[in-house]
Each structure stands twice: as structure tokens, then as C-alpha cells.
Amino acid sequence: MNVPFIDLKRYEPGFHKALMEKFHLMSLDAQFIGGREVSDLEQRLSSLLMVEHAVACANGTDALQLALRAAGVGIGDAVLVPNVTFWATFEAVVNVGADPVTIDADLSDGGVSFEAFEQAIRKLQPKAALVAHLYGWGSARLLDLRALCRKHGVVLVEDGAQSFGARYQGAPICKGAHISTTSFYPAKVLGGAGDGGAVFTDDTELAEKLRRLGNHGRTAHYGYGDVGWNSRLDSLQAAFLNLSLDHIDARIASRREAVAYYQKHLPSTGIQMMSAPDGYEENGYCNVCLVPDPTRKAAMETCLKTEGIGFGNIYPSVMSKQPGAVAYLKGHFGGQAGDQLCASVLNLPLFPYMTEAELRRVVDVVSACKEVAHVR
Ligand SMILES: *Cc1c(COP(=O)(O)O)cnc(C)c1O
Description:
Elements: H1 15-28, H2 36-49, E1 53-57, H3 60-70, E2 78-82, H4 87-95, E3 99-103, H5 114-124, E4 128-132, H6 142-151, E5 155-159, E6 167-168, E7 171-172, E8 179-183, E9 197-201, H7 204-213, E10 218-220, E11 223-224, H8 235-245, H9 248-265, E12 272-273, E13 280-281, E14 289-290, H10 294-306, E15 332-333, H11 337-344, E16 345-346, H12 356-375
Parallel strand pairs: 2-3, 2-4, 3-15, 4-5, 5-8
Antiparallel strand pairs: 1-9, 6-7, 6-13, 8-9, 10-11, 12-14, 14-16
Helix pairs in contact: 1-8, 2-8, 3-4, 3-7, 5-6, 10-12
């Protein structure tokens, strides 16, 4: 039996019918921009995530750019960026005209090294800092990072593209964040039928600015108080997301069950699995195994491929070593733990409604491959 790395086609019974009905009515009504679906989605997100304001936008990268622009980050401002993250986190800083400075990773949780982050804040006094809650949880020192930024007047933007539904100390991870963002890219935990994103904040003035920037800086239909761009979320997209939200608890529960299965059975194969730090309830975004020996990792990957088991590597390289970063990078704090993390990560299949037979098959193959990888 083959097991894909991800399968997005396992919709709940009735999902498609409800979707077609909604699209049919909305199309008849030419309801394509704004309207009820978008405002409903924003309201549902803000109450679910325990934040005052949710502002929908076109994608998760725009969400970061809107957050930085709304916070007044621009040309010549230093902004701290995790060295291990998706490229969009780095891009967002450059696209608002600011100067990215990378921060090394912490191997224990995949977040930024607190020591390197603190050193950069003291030395550079940056305008802003980004952290990314990778793999479905956040940093073990999330509250310390927030407090440090607050103390030094640094705007902290939390990239939550992978942490929708993750909880920390009994509340959604966004709660208490100054500004956080998410992405509705189809493979994310709350995935859309295309691109989408959102920004979250408790600050009313900031929320108004976010909303304005994402709609051409508009203050009236033909009145512009700012130069923004078009980063609106389509109404049909919002409708798809509203229907998906009806099932989000079940989807996250299913992801968490898969995580629990791996946690129970992978250790006996001898493979090391990374998990959320204390205080977190992860959303089950992805499975993160660590295979530090490159030869054994390559052998394991070849073996998984032969056996028809999908796998990934989120992410294979640090930001500072991407060819596209060279022209913009303004510094790096900390060591090279990020390189080690990137080289070690092996992601096994994880998506909602995986069957127990699939999970068992993955564990069996990993177990068998482990022998092969070991022998080589
Ligand atoms: C997916 C992702 C993004 C970008 O989201 P898009 O909607 O694809 O623009 C940003 N940061 C992280 C950490 C991501 O995983």
C-alpha cells in the first residue's frame, strides 16, 4: 500500500454538496468581493482564536507584509527573521523595504534561539522581529520573546501560517500576540480552495490600518488615505473557508490522533521524533522526525521512496544561504544550529483522516527501512 505525503481530497460527507449549493447561490447573486461570507469568516476567526480583530487578506505572505506595513516598518528598518522558516517570512521583510537579519534556530523546538534573539535586540535595537511557529507549535520561550520585544519597543509579528489551532497554556497560540498572521494555502491546517490569509491583533487602530492597506489604502470608494495594494480575500474563498471551519475541530482531532499514533509507535523503530514543548497542544500540522546522519537520512529516503511512502523536508535550507537572500541579508545572530536542523528534518505523511492501516504501514516501512539505512 502506498501512502501519500499529503492527501487533500478527503472531504467530509456532505462537504461538496454544501459547497456547490453555496457557490451556486453566490454566483447567481454575483457576490464576489467582500460581503457576508468575508465578514462572517473574520468574526468566526476572531472568536475562535480569542483575538479582537481578524483581517482577511489574499495570502499568508501578504498577511506578513500587511502586518509589517501597518506597524510602520519600512525602508532601512532592521527586522529580525528566523533563519529556519518558509522563504515568505524573509521575503516579507525585503518587500516592505526593510533589512532582514537572520536569527539561528533552537534545535529543541525549531523556533529561534532565545539567546541569539536577545543579543540581536540589544545590539541592533531593530524596529521589528518576526518569529514563525513552525511544525504546528511555538517556541518554548514564547512568552519571554513577547515580553522582551515589549520591553525594548520592538514590534513582534508572529507568523502562524503553520500553527492554526495550536494551543499554548490552554488558549489559542494567537491569544496575547501583538500581531500574528496565518495562511489558508490549501495544505495548511485551515486550507482554502486556493490562496488566502489573515492578520490577527487586539489593537483596534492597527486593525483599521491593516484593513485599509489591504484595500488600496482606501478611506472612501475613491478616497485614499494611504498607498496600499489589493490584498482582498475573495468571497467564494471565504465561503469555502467558512464551510471548512465547520469541520476544523474534527480535522485537527484527526491530525492529533495521527501524531499520537506516531508518538506511540515510532520510538520502537529507533527514529527520533520532534514534538511540541511543554505547555503546547500541537495542531498536528506535520510530523517531524530527525535523522542527523546525512548518509542514513539519504538511505532512509531512498527506501521510503521504493516502498511508496511519501515524505518531505520542511525545510531543506536556511534563509541566509538561499541565493536570493545574499543581496538583502544584513547580518546573522547565533550559530549554525539552523543548518543542522534543516539537514536532519524528515517529515512523514500527516493529514486529516489518515487511516490506521496507513499509519501502521508508514511505521512498518520506517522500521524496515531503518535496518536498511543502518546497514549502509
Ligand atoms: C505557508 C507559509 C507562509 C506563506 O503563506 P502563503 O499563503 O503561501 O503566502 C508563510 N510562512 C510560513 C511559515 C508558511 O508555512
